[in-house]
Every structure is written in structure tokens, then in C-alpha cells.
Specification:
Blueprint: E1 7-9, H1 20-29, E2 35-37, H2 44-55, E3 63-65, H3 76-81, E4 89-91, H4 99-109, E5 117-119, H5 127-139, E6 145-147, H6 158-167, E7 173-175, H7 183-194, E8 201-203, H8 211-220, E9 229-231, H9 241-252, E10 259-261, H10 272-278, E11 284-286, H11 293-306, E12 312-314, H12 322-334, E13 340-342, H13 349-362, E14 368-370, H14 378-391, E15 394-396
Parallel strand pairs: 1-2, 2-3, 3-4, 4-5, 5-6, 6-7, 7-8, 8-9, 9-10, 10-11, 11-12, 12-13, 13-14, 14-15
Helix pairs in contact: 1-2, 4-5, 5-6, 6-7, 7-8, 8-9, 9-10, 10-11, 11-12, 12-13, 13-14
């Protein structure tokens, strides 16, 4: 009856099955609701049908959250019927959607002209389901974001995904984190990237990508002019000459990439940081937990000194000693672009901390500094807080 409510959240309320027909009836006549959250209730077959039928008469609902409501492949036909030309975001996380259900959803999406985001994280989509995604997105031009994190996609599934990237003209964000993609799959994705002109963000974090797959991804950057964010951390490649050549080739021919995360890959070194310094657009670099120590710490200090574009540098858990802190501090005094520096969980101790404090005082751009878990005494932590407040720098010391 209300004409002003824009959001209703009934998550985890043990909504009984006989309540969904009443909810559906209300949806048919409501003209103000924009977001409906039914998360963690037993929707299943009868509920999905009721909601799908109701949405045919609703033109205002934009976001539907049906996370963890027991949806399996048979219910996905009803999910497809929810795409009414007005709904823009649907959250299907933590359900039991497998290949057949995924195909049903994307078959419906092929004819839809309003959906912008679909979240299928933590389902059971495997390789065959990716062919359904390809078919749907060859026709669809409005979907901008797909989250396929924590599914069962392996190398074979990347064949249709790579082909989709060549042809699709709308997708901006593709999340494939925590799947089963190895070298062959990464090569197919890289092939798609070379001919893609719309993707802005690719996350292939925590897969099984080795040397040849990473080389292909990095080389593809030279042929891609739209990708802005690449997360390729926690895979199985490491810093070797062939990988370095591929990285140099890709980065030297690229000017669009703004964010890069290569953490937990042991990638880095004296020859790596100059490639980063010469890139014409990179603004955020994350190199966490690569076990670099003092030698590579010096290379990152030179990067801070040389870069003119980096605004955020995250170097957590790299075993940097006090000497690295001193060198980074000297580089900070000369840098004119860095706004955020994260050195948390290193071993800078008081000597390195006091040097960083001196660098912070001299920096004209630094606005955020994270230095937790570095073995500082209370005196040094207090000094950081005092000077950070005076310079209007956000600081995290503990």
C-alpha cells in the first residue's frame, strides 16, 4: 500500500512459502520500490515463479537480491522470466546454479535490454555453462558486470569466454577469481583481450595460471586499449626472463592500464620496476607477500623516485628491513605523484620508521600511510600520529 518505500529487506527472516504469493501481489501494484532483498529465505520453485510473474507487471524495481535462496537449475527458467526490461541488478550468489541453469539465465539475457549486473559467485557453473554465457552475450549489449568468482570454470570454459570477449561490446567487469583456470585457459582469455574494446576490469586472482598463461596475458596488454584494472595475483607463475620479456612487451605498448595487482607471485626485481616506472598511465600497483627483502626494496625505492603517475603503492608483507625504509623515505622526498603508501607487515623497526616519518614530512602529495606491524616502539608510533595530524595525513599504525 505504501507509495514511498524504495527498499525492502527481509533477509534471514524464515519467510514461509505461503508469503510469496502475497509479496508477488504487492509487487504487481507497487510503483515506488527499487530494491528488494530476499536473501537467505527458502524461495525455490514456487517463490521464484511468483516473483517472476509479478515482475512482468512491475516497472520500478531495479535491484533484486535472491542470494542463498536454494535456486537450482530447474528454477533458472523462472529467474530468466524476471528479466522484464526494467530490472538492472540481480544477485544470485550462494545458490546451486550449474551449467544448465547458467545457460537458461543467459538465454533470457540475450533478449534483455536493461540488466547491468549479474552476480553468480559461489555457484556450480563449470565449463559447459560458459558456452551459454557466450551465446547470451553475443546478442546482449547492456550487461556491464558478471561475477563468476568461486565457481568451477577451467581451461575449456575459457574458450567460449575468450570468443565472447572478441565480440561483446558492453561488458566492463569480468570476475573469474577462485576458479580452476590454468595456462591454456589464460591463453584463450588473452586472445580475447587482444580484440576486446570494452572490458575495463579483469580479475583472474587465485587460479592455476603458470608461466605461459601469464606471458600471454601480459603480451595481450600491448593490443588492448581499454583495460584499466588487472588482478592476476595468487597464481603459479614467477619472475623468469621470458615472463619479464612478455611483461615489458605488453606494458611498453599499453597506455590504458591504471591498476595492477601481481601479489604472491614472486614477481619483481631490478628489471621489473623500471618497466613500471616507464608506463604512461599506471596509478595503483599492489605487490604483496612476494618475499622480496632488502635487495628488491631498493628497486621499489627507485620506482617511487622515478614514477610520475603512481598514486597508490601497496607493498605489504615483503620482509623489508630498516634499510629499505631509509631508501623509500629518500625517494618520497622527491616523488610528486604518490598519495597512498602501504608498508604494513614488514620489518622496518624504529630506524626505518623514523626515516619514513621524515619522508612523510617532506612529501607534497602523500595523504595516506599504512605502517602497521613493523615492530615500532610506542614513541615512534606516537610521533607518526602527531605529525600525520599536523599534515592532514590519514595514518594507520596499529
Amino acid at each position: 500500500k505504501s507509495r514511498g518505500i524504495q527498499r525492502v529487506d527481509v533477509r534471514e527472516n524464515k519467510v514461509p512459502p505461503d508469503a510469496f504469493p502475497r509479496l508477488a501481489a504487492a509487487l504487481r501494484v507497487n510503483n515506488s520500490l527499487r530494491e528488494l532483498v530476499i536473501r537467505r529465505n527458502a524461495l525455490r520453485q514456487p517463490g521464484t515463479l511468483e516473483v517472476a510473474n509479478a515482475l512482468q507487471d512491475n516497472q520500478t524495481l531495479k535491484t533484486l537480491d535472491i542470494r542463498d535462496v536454494g535456486i537450482r537449475d530447474p528454477e533458472c527458467v523462472n529467474v530468466g522470466h524476471m528479466f522484464n526490461g526494467f530490472l538492472e541488478n540481480i544477485n544470485l550468489r550462494d545458490n546451486q546454479v550449474a551449467d544448465e541453469g547458467c545457460a537458461e539465465i543467459f538465454a533470457a539475457l540475450a533478449e534483455d535490454k536493461s540488466m547491468k549486473s549479474i552476480n553468480l559467485r559461489d555457484n556450480r557453473v563449470a565449463d559447459e555453462g560458459c558456452y551459454g554465457i557466450q551465446e547470451g552475450l553475443l546478442k546482449n549489449r547492456t550487461l556491464e558486470k558478471i561475477n563468476l568468482r568461486d565457481n568451477r570454470i577451467a581451461d575449456k570454459g575459457c574458450i567460449p569466454l575468450g570468443e565472447m570477449l572478441k565480440e561483446n561490446r558492453g561488458l566492463k567487469i569480468l570476475n573469474l577469481r577462485d576458479n580452476r583456470i590454468a595456462d591454456e585457459g589464460a591463453i584463450h582469455l588473452a586472445d580475447g583481450l587482444t580484440r576486446n574494446s570494452c572490458l575495463l576490469h579483469l580479475d583472474i586472482h587465485d587460479n592455476r595460471i603458470g608461466q605461459s598463461g601469464a606471458e600471454a596475458i601480459f603480451k595481450s596488454l600491448a593490443f588492448n586499449s581499454t583495460l584499466k584494472k588487472l588482478i592476476i595475483r595468487d597464481n603459479r607463475f614467477t619472475h623468469k626472463p621470458a615472463l619479464e620479456r612478455a611483461f615489458r612487451e605488453g606494458m611498453s605498448g599499453n597506455s590504458s592500464l591504471e591498476e595492477l595487482d601481481i601479489s604472491c607471485t614472486k614477481m619483481g626485481g631490478k628489471t621489473f620496476t623500471p618497466i613500471i616506472a616507464q608506463h604512461r598511465g599506471l596509478k595503483r600497483l599492489v605487490v604483496e607477500n612476494c618475499g622480496h627483502g632488502a635487495v628488491i626494496g631498493e628497486s621499489f625505492a627507485k620506482l617511487v623516485e622515478q614514477t610520475t603517475t603512481l598514486e597508490c603503492l601497496e607493498l605489504r608483507r615483503n620482509k623489508f628491513p630498516a634499510s629499505t625504509g631509509v631508501k623509500l623515505a629518500n625517494a618520497l622526498k622527491k616523488n610528486r605523484s604518490l598519495r597512498k603508501l602501504d608498508l604494513s607487515h614488514n620489518s622496518l623497526k624504529d630506524k626505518g620508521g623514523l626515516a619514513i616519518l621524515d619522508g612523510m614530512k617532506m612529501s607534497s602529495t602523500l595523504k595516506e600511510l599504512l605502517i602497521t606491524m613493523n615492530g615500532f616502539t610506542k614513541t615512534v608510533i606516537s610521533a607518526f600520529k602527531t605529525h600525520a595530524k599536523a599534515r592532514n595525513v590519514t595514518i594507520k599504525t596499529e
